[in-house]
Fold this sequence. Notes:
Low-confidence stretches: none
Distance between the termini: 149 Å
Structural class: mainly alpha
Region (Disordered): 239-271
Keywords: Membrane, Transmembrane, Transmembrane helix
Radius of gyration: 50 Å
Oligomer: single chain
Organism: Polystyrenella longa
Transmembrane segments: 92-111, 123-145, 196-214
Helix content: 55-70%
Shape: rod-shaped
Order of helices and strands: HHHHHHHHHH
Protein name: Collagen triple helix repeat (20 copies)
Amino acid sequence: MRQAKLKNIIQTILDCCYLLRTWLVNYLAYYSLRLYGLENVALNDVRTGRYSTHNYSDRNLDNAKELDLLLSASKECLDNAKHRRTAITDKCKTLITISSVLMGLVGFLTPKALAFEHTWMRLIGFLAILALMNTITLLLVFFGVGCESEISIEQDEVELDASNLKKSMINGYLLCQTDMDNRTNYLVDLYKSARFFALFAFAVFVGLFSVSILSTSPKEETERILLKLRSDPVLTEMLRGPRGEKGKEGQIGPKGERGGEGQVGPMGERGDEAVVDEDAIVKRILESLGAQQGNAGVPQN
């Protein structure tokens, strides 16, 4: 009982997610087609994945003369519709490849895109990224599973004669061709819308990077980055790393040579209240005179 209840709850959650995803994708495709410029598209056309503009009615073949020729022509009409579907599918494969490469380039150049100096440039770049993602979403909708009419042989047709069987096959081929054209026409418009958004995103990115390259020189960009790095104390401390322990004190080195004699300093100011020792001055004069007389009395050899 509990397992069944839990299973029902999980199934309900999954159903809600599926409905929400379907609702978002349908409205995204619808408004993308309207933004591209298609006015005759309806929301029901997006939900069914085909247009309902061409309605088929059985051809009256009672008076037909060349049933074999009509049967061959109806088969050729269906083949042409298949070739048209194949051609548009190949175009979508090419477009989704180009969009994927462009998305990779955008991811590689994202740091450069976020370094735009002006806010309006960053805003336009963000819108271009949304347009590119919308392109990929529309292409995924293109490759979604849809219903197609096919030729089949029912039991009531087995009992028909050759003439009536050919008439039934002719109407069957034409019915399949009309149904395929209705879906192909819708897929063609879906492809045109996806290509429009892809070209818009590509043109915006080329314009933004051109303006950024022409308006900013490499030298100014390098100086701006260096200034930003130097002004960040957290980054500077992180690059410098933790401070190590203080090393041991080294031995005292040998004593250096004595320097040369310095210049004589300037004469100092004269003192206002200097004390003169007269006795000492007289004593020095007498000693000087006595020494001179002693030198004069010494006989020369």
